[in-house]
N-acetyltransferase domain-containing protein (Desulfoferula mesophila), 180 residues
Amino acid sequence: MRYHVGPNGEGKRRPGITVRTMEIDDLAPVFHLGEELFTAEEVPNLYRTWDEFEVVGLFTSDTDYCLVAEEEEQGRMVGFALGTTITKSGSAWKYGHLVWLGVDPAWQEHGVGSRLFNLLRDRYLEAGVRIMMVDTEADNLPAIRFFRKLGFGKPSEHLYMSLNLSGHRAQSHRGHEEGR
């Protein structure tokens, strides 16, 4: 067991962390941790949805870029990183996109996110990726600070707009019936 110093200088004994490639048995623990972290209340303007299809889709299409962190003493999963690569037609460049990074709140500020990021970055480098991208909400200051510490810069603003279609359903049905 290793000795970690907390943010207020208090000492805590915590087991070591192992970061490895995600396996099929990790799908449920990753999904459930993501459900706790990526809720509509916590992240109301999230443009992607956290669901089982997101996890399974990334795992089946980009297994090398799906990682888990587990504490060594009990083998409990305490974090994950899910990424993908993007190749644009007409461009020789390959991009790496860290799509999801989640760390159990009890393990935040203990280097788990950095360990996951470092292994993912190394895998992207081995695959010839030239630029790595992340995105987060503009008001998620802890994530912005974390990514800046890792060397990310040049943030660019994106605007995502939404339209609630629930009020349009009745109009749409009436329009289809009138058009018959």
